[in-house]
UniProtKB/TrEMBL annotation:
UniProt name for this protein: tRNA threonylcarbamoyladenosine biosynthesis protein TsaE
Lineage: Bacteria, Bacillati, Bacillota, Bacilli, Bacillales
Cellular component terms (Gene Ontology): cytoplasm
GO biological process, one term: tRNA threonylcarbamoyladenosine modification
One GO molecular-function entry: metal ion binding
Length: 150
């Protein structure tokens, strides 16, 4: 199942991310794919805000992962730099702890990802518009998408 959703502005992207944030539970995993500038980090920042994170959320490219305190802890991973290694960062603790995890460039750690997750692909339509392709795996994430689209 793939759900397609097009937004016309940055504000609509932020609204979508904040709505998703309200529906999240511990151990939820969201993967974000899309070209540079598609809006992966922007989406994560709004999701963090929706989770009540007060700190500034930057792309963790050089640290691989940052954790933030909110309504739920948020793990923000950008695994771009792991491309050529098979480093084990303790994936099970990351994905199956109390936190919500958002992973940018997730395909690079495909074997380490939970089998069930919400995959989101962001495509740039023009300067302000973005197409979201939501691909849930498993009942939990299918229900999450249904709630999100209500
Ligand atoms: P990525 O992390 O995918 O490389 P960023 O989130 O860093 O992308 O950058 C996305 C850029 O596109 C930001 O400068 C953001 O302000 C801009 N932008 C414009 N419209 C949108 C939109 N509808 N959704 C997300 N980002 C948008
Ligand atoms: Mg980014």
């Amino acid at each position: 199942m793939t759900i397609e959703w097009t937004v016309q502005s940055l504000e609509e992207t932020q609204a979508l991310a904040m709505k998703l944030a309200d529906l999240l539970q511990p151990q939820d995993t969201i993967t974000l794919e899309g070209d540079l500038g598609a809006g992966k980090t922007t989406f994560t920042q709004a999701l963090a805000k929706g989770l009540g994170v007060k700190r500034i959320v930057n792309s963790p490219t050089f640290t691989i992962m940052k954790q933030y305190e909110g309504r739920l802890p948020l793990n923000h991973l950008d695994v771009y730099r792991l491309a050529d290694s098979d480093e084990d960062l303790g994936w099970d603790e990351i994905f199956f702890g109390d936190a919500v995890s958002v992973v940018e460039w997730a395909h690079l750690i495909e074997p380490d990802l939970p089998a069930e997750r919400l995959a989101i692909r962001i495509e740039r339509v023009d300067a302000d518009a973005r197409r979201f392709l939501l691909n849930p795996t498993g009942t939990r994430y299918e229900q999450l998408c249904e709630e999100l689209m209500k």
